[in-house]
Amino acid sequence: MSERDGKLWGIILAGGDGKRLQSFVRERFGCDVPKQYCTFTGTRSMLRHTIDRAEMLIQPKRLLTIVSKTHFRYAEAQLADRPKEMVLIQPIARETGPAILYPLLHVYQRDSEATVCLFPSDHFVLNEQSFMKYIEFSAEYVATNPQSIALLGAIPQKPDSGYGWIVTGDQVAGKKPKRMYRVSKFVEKPDVLTAYLLYHKGSLWNTMVIVCKVKVLLAMFKKYAPATYQALWEVRDVLGSMLEKKVLEEVFARISPVNFSYSILEKNPKGLRTLQIEGVYWSDWGKAARIEADIARYCRPRSSPVTSLPIPESFGETVLVPQIQES
C-alpha cells in the first residue's frame, strides 16, 4: 500500500461511552468499560485492532487518537507506545461533532492540504488488508476530486433495522470490486419494513469511515455548526502549547453537543460519495447478539477468562472463513 509515504492522515475516534453495551460488558468483564477498550477474544482490544489496521496505510506520525478524559485510565496503557502528540484527550463529552472537529484542527495545523480518514474504534472487520485497500482507493479518488467526501458503505448481511443505511445514486467512478456512487440519502435505524425495502433495493450499511480533504470537512463544520466551529477555532492558536489543555476545557464547557451524522454529514448529500466494500465483513458490534454471533462464527476463543482481569486489555485475533475472500 503506497499511501504510507503520501499525505494521508488518520483520526481514530475512541471517546464513545458505549452505553448500548454497558450491561453486556459489565456482565462479561465485571466492570463498566467502553467496548473499544475491551478484549472480546484474542489479545487485542478493539482500539488496538483499529490502530493496527490503520497503520497498514498510515504512518504513526500521522495517526491521531482521541479519547475521553473520563476513560483515559483505560486508554493510557493501550496507547503507551503512541507518540505523545498523537493522543488527544477530550475533556467533556459533547457528542461526535466536537470529538471530530478538535482532531481535525490538529491535522489542519500540521498539514492544511492533508487528506484525512476517520476511523471509529469499535467496529469488527475481517479481511483488513482488503478494507484498507478501499481506504487507499478512496484517498486516490479524493486526490482527483478534492471537494468530495468518500464514505465506505458495507454490503448488508440482512435487513437489519439497527444500522444506519446509505441509499446510493448513480455510479461515478471505479469498477468491480471498487465502485464509487453518489449518496442519494441516509436512513438512520429504520423500521423493520423500511429496512427490508432498503436491503432489497441494494442500499448499504453506513460504516462512518470517511475519507476527504481536511479543508472540506472543516468548511462543512463552519457552514452547518458555526457556533461549535467558531468556539473550537479559538483553540487553534494554542494547539501544541502549554495553554491547549486549559483553553480546550473552557471551550468544551460552554459548547453544546453536536451529532456529526445528523448535524453535519446528512446536511450535504451533494458532495458525498460512497464506496461499496466487497469481500470484507464489517459489523459495528452495537448489540450483544451481534458480538456473540461473530465471535462464535469467526474468532478463536480466549485461552484464559477475561473476567480474571481488572480491566480488559485488548481485542483479538480472528479467523477468516472461506466465504470471505480478499479482493
What is shown here, in short?
The chain is of the alpha/beta class and 327 residues long. The chain has helices at residues 22-29, 46-54, 72-78, 96-110, 128-144, 192-201, 214-224, 226-233, 244-254, 260-263, 288-298, and strands at residues 8-14, 63-68, 87-90, 115-120, 124-126, 149-154, 164-175, 178-188, 204-213, 272-277, 281-283.
Structure commentary:
- This protein is α/β, with parallel strands linked by helices and 327 residues long.
- It has a single domain, classed as Spore Coat Polysaccharide Biosynthesis Protein SpsA, Chain A.
- It has eleven helices and eleven strands.
- The protein has a five-stranded mixed barrel with strand order 6-9-7-8-10.
- Strand 7 (164-175) and strand 8 (178-188) form a beta hairpin.
- The longest helix is centred in the middle third of the chain and has 17 residues, at 128-144.
- It is globular, with a radius of gyration of 19 Å.
Protein topology:
Blueprint: E1 8-14, H1 22-29, H2 46-54, E2 63-68, H3 72-78, E3 87-90, H4 96-110, E4 115-120, E5 124-126, H5 128-144, E6 149-154, E7 164-175, E8 178-188, H6 192-201, E9 204-213, H7 214-224, H8 226-233, H9 244-254, H10 260-263, E10 272-277, E11 281-283, H11 288-298
Parallel strand pairs: 1-2, 1-4, 2-3, 6-10
Antiparallel strand pairs: 4-9, 5-11, 6-9, 7-8, 7-9, 8-10
Helix pairs in contact: 4-7, 4-8, 7-8
